[in-house]
Write a structure and sequence with these properties.
The chain is mostly helical and about 260 residues long. It is built from eleven helices and no strands. It is elongated and about 90 Å long.
Amino acid sequence: MDIATIVGIVSAFTLLLLAMSQGGGSPMQFIDLPSVLIVVGGTVAATLVANPLAEVVKLMGVYMKAIRNTAVVPAELIEKIVGFAETARREGILALEQAVDEQGDDPFLSQGVRLAVDGTEPDLIMDILETELQFIEQRHKAGQDIINRMGDAAPAFGMIGTLVGLIIMLRAMDDPSAIGPGMAMALLTTLYGAILAQVLFIPVGAKLKTYSDNELLGKKMIIEGIMAIQQGDNPRIVEHKLSVFLSPDMRPSTKETSGSGE
């Protein structure tokens, strides 16, 4: 679980509430139902128009991935693949089938290892795994695009609400008591749109992209590792091939990953 996402969202709303409460005011003064209907309702409506219903229904699950992050640590992934290489070097590549059954928590890795165990041609393994990688990237991007479009729609509907509020205010210039509600709508819709975009949508879209990039990096490492294992590379060579994907400070210790497979 990514605590930073939760802390960031909660902190943003807490600070906003504290700021609204300064000077003897009350946060309740910033609640306006017409403004909520325009901004929230408009954003949801625009999302439904721009995306298939099936994708919108899955949106909450996509959003929660920014909080429930279960990405594999790259250094741990290298250790696992190097362990597979050591097993293949000592006992033969067929022994990897049992190793995958015991550590089959990554379907992509399990699929690739089983293809290698079955004697599939290296070019075919590469083609199968890279094709799946492309579709994984497309699915991730589809969810990110919906979140980002909502981040664009919220301020736009905030501006629409501002125009509606100004029109209401200008039409009631002869009645001073009616000017206040129009001005409130004009300002609050802009506020709501900015808060939704800058707290709930745009940062979460950026976080999802970061997680997606990390996951795709891990899968590229898996492909490289499986190719190296099938070629019969020394486990130390497998480790070096995978370590180049990471910055030096993220690479596993040589003592931890090197085994007796030389």
